[in-house]
C-alpha cells in the first residue's frame, strides 16, 4: 500500500547545528508511529517542517504521494494534517468551548463571516468533541484558567476538529503525571482509530511508547538511527548506546 | 558632505536609543526629548558662559547632565515598567515626552534659540572647489571616533561584555550574579548622555526649538529600525544612509522630470520613512539586526467575551436616551452641543482604534492617519470634487480604507514595537504629504469653509447625525467582534501559531480588521471635518494617535466598553482641566503615567474586575 506520509532525505540546520540530518521514513495509512529521541534530537524541528512552519534545507515531504514542500501551515492543514504543539497552544481569551467552535468554523471555511454571532454555531459538535477528550464539564471555563494537562486535551480536540488524515502530536503528554500520560495516549489512540486517522507522535516516556506505538523511529542528533517495533528498538545496540547511554534503563525494563 | 556631518549627531542620538533597547527591550519614546534637552542645556552653557569653556566645556556638562537625568528616569520610572506589556512601556515613555516638553517650555520659553558657533572651528575649508565649514568636518570625524569608542567600550571592557551578554540573554546575566539593576541604570544613563551630546552638537548649526523632540524621535526611530534594533554599527550605517538620502533630496531641489516640476527637497520628510518602510518589509530586523524574542502580549489576561446582560442593555438604552436629549440644550448652552459632538467623534475614533489594538492585538501608534485621511477625504471631496455632504461623508471611509489596506498590508506582518513604529512611520508619511502638498491640501493652514448644508448647519441637528453614525459604527464593530471574524482576530492574537495550524489565515484576518478599523476611523474624521468647518494637518499629528491610545487605555483595553468610557472621560478632561493651564501636556503626561503605573485595567476594566469579584 502507498504510504500516507513519506519523508525523503529531510535536512535542516540552524547555524552550525544539524538539527535534522538526512532523515527518511514513511508512515502507512492508519499507522500509530512514534518518533523518539533524546532532548535536542530534532523531533520538533521535524514536526515543524512537516506542517510547513519551517522550510527544510533539503529533501522532500510527500503527503498521499504529492509533495507538500513549500506550502505553509494553513495549506498543509487544508490537505488534512492537524498538529499539537510541544508547548501546548490554545486561545486563552476564549472559553474552552469557543476554542473548539472556532476550529470547527475554520474547518467549515466560515472565518470571514462578519455577522452571525459565534455563540450557537457548531456548539453541539464542539461539546461532542470535548466530550470525546473528557473536557465537556469545563466547556464554559476561560481557556487560560485550565490546568496544563487539560490544555493538552483541548489541543487534541482542536486538532481533531478539522477531521485530519494525519495527526502530528509533539509530546502530547509533556507535563503530565504517569497515569495521565497513559490515559491520554490510550484516548488518542482510540479516537484516531475510530476516525481512521494516522498519527505521528513524539514522547519521552518509554513506558508509553513501548505500550502504545505500533512502530518506532529513533532520532539522535538529527540522524535517524533505528526503526522497527518495540522489541527491535529495545534490542538495537545503537539505540541503547546513543539514546540510553549505559542502557541501564532498558535493562531495568526487561528485568 | 553635509549629509555626512548630519549623520554624526543622528548617530549619537540613535546609538543611545539602540543601546537602551538592546539591553532593556524598552523603546524609549522620550529619547528625542533627551536630545532636545541636551540642545537647550548646551545652548545655555555656550551663550551664558561663552568662549571656549562655555562651548566645549558645555558639551561635557551637557553629557553629564543628561546622564544624571537618564539615571533619574531609569530609577524612578523605567524600573517599574520593565515587566509590563510593550504598549504600556511605549506610553509611559511618551508621557515623559509630554512632561519634558513642558519643562523645557517653562525653563527656556517657546522661542527658537540658535547657539553661538563653535569657538576654534569658525572657519571653513576648501575641498574640491567647495567650501565646507570646519565644524562640519569636525562632526564628520567625531562620528566614527565615537563609534570606535563605543566599540572598544563594549568589546574590550568587562562592563561592555556584560552589556553585550545582557543584549543576547538577559537571564544569563542575572544568573551570573551581576547586579542587573545597576547595569540597566548605567546603560540608560549612557544612552541619555549620547542623546544629549547629539543635541548639543547641533546647536551651532540649527536653533534649539520645541519641535525637536518629536522630529528627533522620528529620525532616531528610522535609523534604529533601518540599522537593526540593538545594533550600534547598524545605527551608524543607517545614520549615514538616512542623512545622505536627505542631503541628496535637498541638493536636487526642484527637477524637471518628463516636463513636470518635481520638488525633491519637499520629499525629505517622506524619504526617510519610505526607506524605513522598505527596510522593515525586506528585512524586518533591520540591516544589521538580528531577530528578537517572541513578542509579548498583554492579552493573556483577558476574559472571554460575554453578550451584554439585562442591566448593561438598560444602561446603554438610558445613555442613548440621554444623548438624544442633548440637542434640547442647544438654546440654553450651545457649547454643550458642540462638546457632545466632539465626544461622540472621539468615541468613534477610539472605538476603531480599540478594534485593532484590543481584540486584534495590533498596537497602532499611527491611527490618526486614517482620521486625518477621512477628514481630508471628506473636505476635498466637498471642496474640489464638489460633492454633496452625504457623498463626502460616505467617500471618506473609502479613502481611509484604501490607505489602511496599503499600510495595513505591511503592518500586520510585524508585531510589538516594530508594528508600533511602522504605523507611526506611515502616519508621519501621511502627515508630511498633507503638510507639503500645499496646492491640494492647503499645507499647514488646511482648508476652511467646510460647513454642512441645511438642515445640518444647526449644531443640534448635526449632532444627531453624528450620534446616529457613531452608534451605528460602534454597534457594527461590536457585532463583528461577536461573529466568527472577531473570534478569529482574537485567536490570531492569542496564538498565531495555533491559529495558522488550525486553518485561520491570521495575516488576512488582521489585515481586514485593519481596513475595517481604518474606514470607521475615516468616518470619524469626516464627521470631524464638518463639525469644525475645516481641515488641518493637526488631525493627523502623532499627538492625536497617542490621545487615541490614552482614551482606549483609560477606558480599559480589555473591555469592549473601554473606548466608550475612555473617550468621553478623556475629552471632557481635556476640555475642563487641560484648557485651564498652559501646561496641559504635562498634565496629560501625568495622567498617562498614573494610568500605566496604577490603573493598567482602565476605568471599565477596573469596574468589570470589581463586578467579577462581587459575583463570586
Ligand atoms: N529556531 C531554532 N534556532 C536555532 N536552533 C534551533 C532552533 N530550533 C531548534 N534548534 C536546535 O535544533 C536542535 C533540535 O531541536 P528540536 O527542538 O528539534 O529537538 P527535540 O528533539 O524536539 O528536543 P526536545 O525533546 O527537547 O523537545 C537543538 O540543538 C536545538 O537547539
Ligand atoms: Mg521537541
Features:
heterodimer, A: 255 residues, alpha/beta, Rossmann fold, 2 domains, six-stranded mixed beta sheet, four-stranded antiparallel beta sheet, 10 helices, 10 strands, 24% strand, disordered C terminus, B: 616 residues, mainly alpha, ABC transporter involved in vitamin B12 uptake, BtuC, 3 domains, two-stranded antiparallel sheet, 25 helices, 6 strands, 72% helix, 3% strand, globular, binds adenosine-5'-triphosphate, binds magnesium ion
Report on this model:
- The complex is a heterodimer of chains A (255) and B (616).
- With 255 residues, chain A is α/β, with parallel strands linked by helices.
- Chain A folds into two domains: 170 residues, 3-Layer(aba) Sandwich (Rossmann fold); 76 residues, no CATH class.
- Chain A has ten helices and ten strands.
- In chain A, helix 3 packs across helix 4 and helix 4 packs across helix 5.
- Chain A is globular, with a radius of gyration of 19 Å.
- The N and C termini of chain A lie far apart (38 Å).
- With 616 residues, chain B is mostly helical.
- Chain B folds into three domains: 281 residues, ABC transporter involved in vitamin B12 uptake, BtuC (Orthogonal Bundle); 197 residues, no CATH class; 53 residues, no CATH class.
- Chain B is 72% helix and 3% strand.
- About 1% of the residues of chain B have low confidence.
- The chains are: A alpha/beta (255), B mainly alpha (616).
- At the A-B interface, helix 2, helix 3 and helix 5 of A face helix 18, helix 19 and helix 20 of B.
- Bound molecules: adenosine-5'-triphosphate (ATP) and magnesium ion (MG).
- The site of adenosine-5'-triphosphate has 12 residues of chain A, from strand 2 and helix 1.
- Adenosine-5'-triphosphate binds next to strand 2 and helix 1 of chain A.
Topology, pairings included?
The complex is a heterodimer of chains A (255) and B (616).
Chain A: E1 5-14, E2 17-27, E3 32-36, H1 43-50, E4 58-63, E5 66-67, H2 73-78, E6 81-84, H3 96-107, H4 123-132, H5 148-161, E7 166-170, H6 178-195, E8 198-202, H7 206-212, E9 215-220, E10 223-228, H8 230-235, H9 237-242, H10 248-254
Parallel strand pairs in A: 3-8, 3-9, 6-7, 7-8
Antiparallel strand pairs in A: 1-2, 1-4, 4-5, 9-10
Helix pairs in contact in A: 3-4, 3-5, 4-5
Chain B: H1 2-24, H2 31-49, H3 51-81, H4 86-108, E1 124-127, E2 130-133, H5 134-156, H6 158-168, H7 170-175, H8 180-202, H9 212-227, H10 232-252, E3 254-257, E4 260-263, H11 268-282, H12 310-325, H13 334-357, H14 368-383, H15 389-411, H16 416-436, H17 438-441, E5 447-448, H18 459-482, H19 484-494, H20 496-501, H21 506-532, E6 534-535, H22 542-555, H23 562-576, H24 584-598, H25 602-615
Helix pairs in contact in B: 1-5, 1-8, 1-9, 1-10, 2-3, 2-4, 2-8, 2-9, 3-8, 4-24, 5-6, 9-10, 9-11, 9-16, 10-11, 11-16, 13-18, 13-21, 13-22, 13-23, 14-15, 14-16, 14-21, 15-16, 15-21, 18-19, 18-21, 19-21, 22-23, 22-25
The complex binds adenosine-5'-triphosphate (ATP) and magnesium ion (MG).
Magnesium ion binds at residues 43-44, 86, 170 of chain A.
